[in-house]
Amino acid sequence: MLSELTANAVADAETRRAARSLVDVEREALLRPAALDALEVLHPAGQVKVIAEIKRSSPSRGALAPIVDPAALARSYELGGASAISVLTEGRRFGGSLADLVSVRAAVALPVLRKDFISTAYQVFEARAAGADLVLLIVAALDDDALRELFDLIVDLGMTPLVETHSADELDRAAALGARLIGVNARDLSTFELDRDLFGRLADRFPDGAVRVAESAVQSAADVAHYRAAGADVVLVGEALVTGDPVANLRAFLAV
Ligand SMILES: O=C(O)c1ccccc1NCC(=O)[C@H](O)[C@H](O)COP(=O)(O)O
After folding, report:
1. Mean pLDDT for the stretch of residues 190-217
2. Residue 227 CA to ligand 1 centre (angstroms)
């Protein structure tokens, strides 16, 4: 599933590239105002922080919510106390787009994450051109050379890589990169199985000084408390926010 999602994302980026060349996208990326400092915003604090996700549908759950106005949802997230917004820009299985990211960027003052299956420099330049401050890199989808190249490009463009892992070996690879914002996704991206305890089992392997992000499987404040007790600085939440009351849920999560 992960290799299919990544291959589809590359094919879709190639289609966009036929209309908008790498040179054009690079120019747009370099003309953008500087990215927000997501590491400063997500820095560990006395309270857990939330990255709130715009997620219309998913391979594991199908349609989740008919989000007609992602900018309005992002403003609700900001009102509810989210520290950053994740925008799923993958179109085929998640129903997202770069247009969603552009409208969210214009609507909020928070850092915005491009959440997609990134494996080419073109996709990174697209992210910055659309106004992203953070870009997701999924360790399982990239070999070490690609991971290094994309990580360095994201940093060179002034953005922050969120390096996503799902095993001890992947966490070690993220640490070797020098990643300072590292996620452990409870969801196995190939089988869709959820393991809320994975974060806790890997928590000791995070490098010193890294911001620890627990991704996926938050349905309630109790789940946030579970991740927090295991050492999470930040939780990344999608489904529970798009299917429930985003402001009320965020406030409940932040009260943990
Ligand atoms: O959500 C999926 O079904 C999925 C399947 C395959 C690859 C990625 C997938 N989701 C991306 C994410 O990691 C989540 O959207 C994100 O962590 C939020 O998860 P949740 O709060 O459980 O919606």
Report:
1. 97
2. 16
Are the beta carbons of 209 and 182 closer than 8 angstroms?
no
Instruction: For domain 2-254, give the CATH superfamily.
Output: Aldolase class I (3.20.20.70)
- Indicate whether residue 192 lines ligand 1 (CB < 6 A): yes
Torsional sign, CA 89, 90, 91, 94: negative
Cα 128–131–136 angle (5° rounding)?
60
The reply to whether ligand 1 has any atom less than 6 angstroms from the CB of 116 is no
Render pLDDT for 49-62 as a digit per residue (tens, 0 to 9). 999 999 999 999 99
Q: Say what the pLDDT of residue 1 is.
A: 86
Where do the structural domains in the chain lie, given as residue ranges? 2-254
Q: What would the pLDDT profile of 118-135 be if each residue is shown by its tens digit?
A: 999 999 999 999 999 999
Q: What are phi and psi of 54, to 5 degrees?
A: -95, 110
Q: d(Cα 93, Cα 205) in Å, to the nearest integer?
A: 32
- Whole-structure pTM over 0.95, yes or no? yes
Strands 181-185 and 49-54: unpaired
At residue 234, the 3 state secondary structure works out as strand
How many angstroms does the Cα of residue 11 sit away from the middle of ligand 1?
A: 21
Which among 78, 90, 126, 215 is annotated as catalytic? 215
- What is the interface pTM, i.e. ipTM, of the complex? 0.98
Whether residue 53 lies in the annotated active site: yes
The encoded tokens of residue 70 equal: 């992602």
Give the N- to C-terminal CA distance of the chain in Å, as an integer.
34
